[in-house]
Write a structure and sequence with these properties.
There is one protein chain. By secondary structure, the protein is α+β, with helices and mostly antiparallel strands. It has a four-stranded mixed sheet with strand order 10-7-11-12, covered by helices on one side. Strands 1-2 form a two-stranded antiparallel ribbon. Strand 5 and strand 6 form a beta hairpin. Helix 1 runs antiparallel to helix 17, helix 12 packs antiparallel against helix 18 and helix 19 packs antiparallel against helix 20. The longest helix has about 35 residues.
Length: about 700
């Protein structure tokens, strides 16, 4: 038994040392020179900035700490902080958690409404909001239509049974409920509040011996800009985090009391799995760990009690898992096939292989990306200049032992890191978002590590110069300064930075019309090509490869005949679909308008069709994705503007003819230095494509009447 305890102690210290190593040593630089494409280059660029901020700030915060060790009496900070600690712990956990949850909900709602203007800022959320609109209207999906290229967007897929987001439906169902209640903007803030409350309640039962850490950790979860940011941006991570916290709390209650709590734990696990499957597996293991790591409970509980709780988890999860299986079978052809597979192919699955974009993901890349995730989490979790993950690592390394609750929360924090080591996607959008669901336990661990290290450090030491020095006062002061600077200044600054001039196109206000209309949005040439291909069935991994490894003009010619338009002597041009990172030799990007790039082969002569497309984009482009979910949608009642992609006057004419009850308009940028404007269709098309193109399309627009070629 003693040998087993010793081995576990060594393992825990090894984990602590590894965490410190992954944060303090720039292992993310292993990505340099690897075949990781734009993702690897972007990660390196971001991490160089993050590491500089983190360690410069850390050095600065040491200064007041070192001075405090000299200038303050050894017990001064302890005496000053004692009343605050008593006040924090006097309030019951439920009341404290509820107050923190309400505050965090309000902050998240304010961020969403006033910084993001109530809009998502990533295509992931846009595609799910789009699908949620259909669910809210009583439809399982949008229609599969021959006109799909006009409104198809990334992260959606066309199936024989409809047009859906490629994400599982758990979060989408909550967004649909938000639409039904007329307050979809409130879904993310409420989920954030739920995460705060349940994290507090779970921690109170797991860390009852350190209630100061529980209260402090709850404040960290509530004020974390990382947690607030993604929840306010409509991301499905917020649903996974909230129900993950519920699963852990219910598992703890099932351990401490009635086995019926395990049914709730199972339902929560099912909801996480129906939102983010890999996270669902992780949370299931964490919930099991609540029981397996509770040695006294295991010793005192009969096999019947354990079996009852396992059965409760299965019965709670079964309805949601069955519903998800039916959903997958209906849209994707198999209960076990997810939309990820349909959209991205088998390369989307975990493991070491080339990812859907052709980048290599092996053990070295996994180590480098894990290091980048933990460095980013160290900064973004609280925006403090004190590296949170390194602090936790130091605690695991130095603590003589961990309590039962500390072991469980450490498992809750570390398992997502381990799972993501084997997963190819590591995004740093508004923080290391693949670790978002681990945000609550990392916040709780940070608080616990800080209080634990403070108690481990000596109160005072005698220096050789004859003066007394207080290491404990120095550490406490450094922590207080870091947290104050982070939470009072750097965290609000980080959240505000997501507004202003950062991605303003994501917050564009869609134009309104007083009557049913078709608003043709003029986007980028590469977008027109991509959605012609995707709208006709090309998988996203193939599409991304085609865009990256072929000249835009060659791909334009290919898209014109895809999938079955090449017959006789009209042969398809050669297109490179080899899944490799980067561009092929002899190809270079060319900017044809601000932030609008195409790929050109060396010495390539543009065909008249390609020259026409380039000319159409000369003044700038507008992305349709941020507007699409906010207007009328195909298959739903006509009430106002339906936003559709401008595919050129000839293609547009067919859609106009198929929608005789809608008046067409164009939304475009009339010159590079102007904001987009809404104009009548003939005026806009003539300005973009030329008067000759308008005449060639045979579209004649009269008062409320549109004539054109017959719809296919």
């Amino acid at each position: 038994m003693r040998g087993s305890a010793g081995a576990l102690s060594h393992a825990r210290r090894g984990v602590g040392a590894l965490l410190v190593l992954l944060v303090t040593f720039p292992l993310y630089r292993l990505l340099d020179g690897r075949e990781t494409g734009p993702a690897g280059r972007a990660t390196l660029s971001i991490l160089e900035t993050y590491a500089s901020l983190l360690w410069t700030g850390f050095a600065v915060t040491l200064i007041p700490g070192l001075l405090a060790g000299y200038l303050l009496a050894p017990d001064a900070l302890g005496r000053w902080l004692a009343p605050l600690g008593r006040w924090l712990t006097a309030m019951p956990a439920a009341a404290f958690g509820a107050v923190a949850a309400l505050a965090s909900t309000a902050l998240t709602a304010a961020f969403s409404l006033f910084v993001l203007d109530g809009k998502p800022n990533l295509i992931d959320a846009m595609s799910q909001l789009l699908h949620a609109r259909y669910l809210a209207a009583g439809e399982l999906a949008g229609p599969a239509s021959p006109f799909a290229p006009f409104w198809h967007i990334q992260n959606t897929v066309l199936t024989p049974n409809g047009w859906v987001s490629h994400y599982p439906p758990g979060h989408i169902a909550l967004l649909a409920l938000g639409f039904r209640l007329g307050a979809v903007w409130l879904v993310g803030p409420l989920l954030q509040g739920m995460t705060v409350l349940l994290s507090c309640l779970a921690a109170e039962r797991l860390l009852g011996e350190n209630r100061v850490a529980v209260r402090l950790g709850t404040v960290f979860v509530a004020l974390s800009p990382f947690m607030i940011g993604l929840a306010g941006a409509y991301m499905n991570h917020a649903t996974a985090a909230a129900f993950g916290a519920l699963a852990v709390y219910a598992a703890v209650r099932a351990r401490d009391g009635s086995a019926w709590w395990s049914v709730l734990a199972g339902s929560a696990i099912g909801m996480v799995f129906a939102t983010r499957p890999l996270t669902g597996v992780v949370i299931a293991v964490v919930a099991a760990g609540v029981w397996l790591l509770s040695r006294e409970w295991l010793r005192d509980t009969s096999w019947r009690g354990v079996a009852l709780r396992c059965a409760g988890v299965l019965s709670g999860a079964a309805p949601l898992l069955a519903a998800l299986a039916l959903y997958n079978h209906h849209f994707f052809g198999s209960p076990l096939r997810f939309g990820y597979d349909v959209a991205l192919g088998p390369a989307a699955r975990p493991g070491f292989h080339r990812d859907p974009w052709g980048n290599v993901y092996g053990p070295v890349e996994a180590l480098a990306y894990t290091s980048s995730d933990l460095v980013a989490l160290s900064l973004n979790l609280l925006e403090t200049p004190l590296p949170a993950v390194a602090l936790v690592g130091a605690f695991l390394l130095c603590a003589p032992r961990l309590s039962e609750g500390e072991r469980i929360i450490t498992t809750w924090a570390l398992l997502p890191v381990v799972a993501n080591f084997f997963y190819w996607h590591h995004g740093l959008w508004m923080g290391p978002r693949m670790l978002y669901e681990a945000g609550p336990p990392w916040a709780l661990l940070t608080a616990g590590a800080a209080t634990g290290l403070v108690h481990m450090v000596p109160v005072e030491r005698h220096l050789t110069v004859g003066r007394r020095y207080s290491p404990r006062a120095a550490l406490t002061a450094s922590l207080l300064v870091a947290w104050f600077v982070g939470l009072a200044y750097l965290a609000p600054a980080r959240l505000l930075s997501y507004g202003r001039d950062w991605l303003p196109s994501m917050r564009i206000e869609p134009p309104r019309t007083p009557h049913p209309s078709l608003v043709f949005v003029h986007g980028a040439w590469t977008g027109r090509i991509a959605m012609r291909l995707a709208g006709n069935g090309m998988r996203l991994d193939s599409l991304e490869t085609a865009l990256r490894r072929n000249s835009t003009c060659a791909l334009h010619a290919f898209a014109a005949g895809y999938p079955d338009g090449f017959t006789g002597e009209d042969r398809a041009p050669f297109i490179d679909f080899e899944a490799r990172a980067g561009r092929p030799s002899g190809h270079a990007p060319v900017e044809i308008a601000p932030d609008n790039w195409i790929l050109v082969r060396s010495g390539e002569a543009m065909s008249p069709e390609c020259a026409r497309e380039i000319h159409a984009d000369r003044n700038g482009v507008v992305d349709i994705a941020p507007m699409l979910w906010q207007g009328d949608l195909p298959g739903l009642p006509a009430t106002g503007a339906m936003f559709v992609r401008d595919l050129g006057p000839e293609a547009n004419a067919a859609l106009i003819a198929a929608q005789p009850g809608r008046v067409p308009y164009v939304f475009f940028t009339p010159s590079p230095d102007r904001e987009p404007v809404l104009v009548p269709y003939d005026q806009g098309i003539a300005a973009i494509w030329g008067q000759e193109s308008l005449a060639a399309s045979h579209v004649r627009i009269g008062p409320g009447v549109v004539h054109g070629p017959a719809a296919p």
